[in-house]
Amino acid sequence: MHMKQMVAGLAMAGVVLAGATGLRAAETQSGTPTVKRARVVTTTATVVAIDLDKRIVTLKGPKGNEMEVAVGDRVKNLPQVQVGDQVIVKYYEALALRVVPPGEAPPAASASSALATAEPGQKPAAVGGHEVSVTVTIEAINLKAGTATFKGPEGHSTTVKAADPKNLKLIKVGDQVEITYTEALAISVHKAK
């Protein structure tokens, strides 16, 4: 992924998460403005049909809606799944914004990912996640419009609307802000009760 796409993606993820969860500002013990928020969404579906040859599983959601899911070859334990089994999906998302104190070197951009799957013979399960971190420079703040414009590490500028315009009062033009976005997905299949 190019740095421009990563920065734009982080900004948009930040806006979406902030709007969905109501980010709140705080200050660390050193007085550095920070904004942190996390959420976990969990849903359960029931397996109502399985086509092992085509690798398609039909799931019934909590509201009775059904959907077919094509299961890739990476799922080693598909034959262990039975009609009636419960598929539990947990999605975790977190965003942290931190004003880098004057004199502190801004952290370098980074990205990391991890994936783990069930052992052969067990019910299918997987957990994976990734974290992306970049430091941007605040170029402009428009309190009336509730927006901030920042420049990413490759020099591209982006303007975003703040979910909580009060947070714009915590920053000033020229500030460097470290943005860290983390997401993880866990999927597990459990025997029908």
Characterize the biggest β-sheet.
Answer: 10 strands, antiparallel
**Unreliable segments of 5+ consecutive residues:** 1-29
The helix content, as a percent range, equals: under 10%
The Cα radius of gyration reads 21 Å
Label the structural class: mainly beta
Write a structural description.
The chain is mainly beta. The chain has one domain. 10% of the residues lie in helices and 51% in strands. The N terminus is likely disordered.
Keywords:
10 strands, mainly beta, 10-stranded antiparallel β-sheet, 193 residues
How would you summarize this macromolecular structure in one to three sentences?
With 193 residues, the protein is mainly beta.
What is the fold's blueprint, element by element?
Layout: H1 3-21, E1 24-27, E2 33-51, E3 56-60, E4 66-70, E5 86-99, E6 110-117, E7 125-142, E8 147-151, E9 157-161, E10 176-190
Antiparallel strand pairs: 1-2, 2-3, 2-5, 3-4, 5-10, 6-7, 7-8, 7-10, 8-9
